[in-house]
Amino acid sequence: MRISEDWQASQINPVGLSAYLDPQYLLTSKVKNQDEGLAVMEESLRSGAVSLAVIELTKPLSFTAGRRLQLAAETGCSTGLCIIPEGMGNNAAESRWRCSPLFDPQDSTLQRWEIIKNKSGTLRAWDVRWDAETRRVIVV
Amino acid sequence: MQKRVVSLWFERLPSERVLRARPVDAPFALTHHQKNADRIYCLNPEAERAGLHRGMGFSDARAFCRDLQSRPADINADAQFLHMLARWSKRYCPWVGLEGRDGLVLTIAGSAHLFGGEEALLDDMRLRLARSGIGARIGLGDTRGAAWAMAHYGPGGICTQTDLTALPIAALRLDEKTLTGLQRLGIRTIADIIALPRATITRRFGRDVLLRLDQALGDQSEDISPLSEDPHYGVRMTLPEPIGLTGDVMAGTERLLTSLCAKLKINEKGARILLLVLRRVDQGNQQVELRLAQPLRDAARILPLFERGVDNVDAGFGIDQMRLVATQVENLPTQQMNHISGQKEGKLDDLITRIGVRIGLENVQRFLPADSHIPERSFIVSPAAYSRPEGAWITMQPRPLRLFPPEAITAHGPHPPARFHWRRMPLTTGRATGPERIAPEWWIVDDNWRSGVRDYWKVDTKEGQRLWLFYTPQSPNWYVQGEFA
């Protein structure tokens, strides 16, 4: 489940996505504003019908909203992911990651995954690439 | 049992339907475009007295009659009105069929005594129709043919054998050509036809004439097919005391849902749109609409989906009547249960419904593959509630994960620039793969592809971004259209 606001012009290209995930398992919802998006996010996390819910945020997430999402994810045993703009994170978050592509002369799937906030451990960074044959991420 | 048939002929049904809503005390006609001209479709008696007739050109009619008022005819609405009349006439008997576009046929055998005999029944019919402003000619006979003949060509009322034989041959429902042929032979009334030897009629005019004659006289049977009545998926409940608590309303809704779902189950249907109307003590109506992501008739699953809508209802001084209607139903055949059909599917559909209540069912979407090599058109976005996931996703060339409307960058020449600015970021090309030429689809007019063919390049920048650039050789320019993972 991917939740985004309806004014955003860029969209997921399912043909490009099909290298990583079969697009038939993907649902998208277009919402009018962030509050609506958060409500949809909470609803889908709580129901447990979807295993991963992703929301694109454009405004900072309040403490209450973040906590509600956490509780909903715990109830539904599902994973939620908020894509936030740089520097708009919530202090209550358990962990926060930064994911950026890297240039690599041989391959074009190299990425750096950094954990920039971790309440239960230390911060680290990994360089990963996508292995098309086994269809999974491998750490370089 | 002897059959008794009533035939109703609404001579001016279309114009009377319009005039009922807006009475006019002047010549009035409905026009309809036929044979390349606006012609009079139906008219009121005043217009007929002014010398107009059906099928006349409308411009001629206006020349004859200066103060003629007119409206365009609405044939669908007329048919609907006739169906309404058919429903009304079920008060006389259960067996009601349509007779062409402007008549009804009723089998009243066995129900006439409820109205005090046939004469009284016809009087009652006439009175009620006249009161509602509909002129009808009514015939009653032993057969459908006799009743029709009496309504159309006789004085109306009960038709006996002698009445029938005195009617002109046109009362036999024959086609125009046969009628002319018979009249040329000097045959004017039905009695004349009966007097002729049967074999000669068949040889001269075919079997149709005798068939119609036998049908009118009752020697040959003729069926009346009654209109089927669609089952109505609605239930209601009137409460002795007004209620206002959410829990009470939900309990009422549960009762209504149980009986509605039982009805749906008998007919193997599933509700797609449900409407809960709550009437308040002050006569105000509150409506809760529920659009389901899949046809359902399981009360236990539908009920929790109503919660959000019922929460938002303003109960005022209390609700004393509840009505639940399935406004859209779909076929839902019973299915064999097995161990594979798990809970997961149902949970997802319920989630879609729940989200749909909040943001609109059409805003929950899924992707379906489409047959096009244009990147923006290689997939369709369709509402998840009205489509099934299907199709195979095949990619020959790498495609970006994110597509956006083309954003121009400054560059020259057919090869990707070594340095460029995109979204205010200075970027340096590390590796460029391409070109892949994509031509516009000439059979679809697309303004975005006016610039002609495009050469697509995948550019890995030294800064990390992997972009999808294209160059339009026919009007040299560079654009960024997508971003790879």
Can you walk me through this structure?
- The complex is a heterodimer of chains A (140) and B (485).
- Chain A is of the alpha/beta class and 140 residues long.
- Chain A has helices spanning 14-17, 34-47, 63-76, and strands spanning 2-5, 11-12, 27-31, 52-56, 79-83, 95-101, 111-118, 125-131, 136-139.
- Chain A contains 3 helices and 9 strands; from the N terminus they run ββαβαβαβββββ.
- In chain A, helix 2 (34-47) runs parallel beside helix 3 (63-76).
- Chain A is globular and about 45 Å long.
- By secondary structure, chain B is an alpha+beta fold.
- Chain B contains 14 helices and 20 strands.
- In chain B, helix 6 packs across helix 11, helix 12 (246-266) packs antiparallel against helix 13 (299-311) and helix 13 packs parallel to helix 14 (344-359).
- The longest helix of chain B has 21 residues, at 246-266.
- Chain B is elongated and about 105 Å long.
- The model of chain B has no long low-confidence stretch (mean pLDDT 89).
- Classes of the chains: A alpha/beta (140), B alpha+beta (485).
- The A-B interface holds A 6, 9-20, 22-32, 36, 39-40, 43-44, 47-50, 100-105, 108-109, 111, 130 and B 344, 347-348, 350-352, 354-355, 358-359, 363-367, 369, 375, 378-379, 381, 384, 389-391, 393, 395, 398-405, 430-431, 458, 460-466, 482, 484-485.
State the main characteristics.
heterodimer, A: 140 residues, alpha/beta, four-stranded parallel sheet, four-stranded antiparallel sheet, 3 helices, 34% strand, B: 485 residues, alpha+beta, six-stranded antiparallel sheet, five-stranded mixed sheet, 14 helices, 20 strands, 31% helix, elongated
Summarize the structure.
The complex is a heterodimer of chains A (140) and B (485). By secondary structure, chain A is α/β, with parallel strands linked by helices. Chain A has helices at 14-17, 34-47, 63-76; strands at 2-5, 11-12, 27-31, 52-56, 79-83, 95-101, 111-118, 125-131, 136-139.
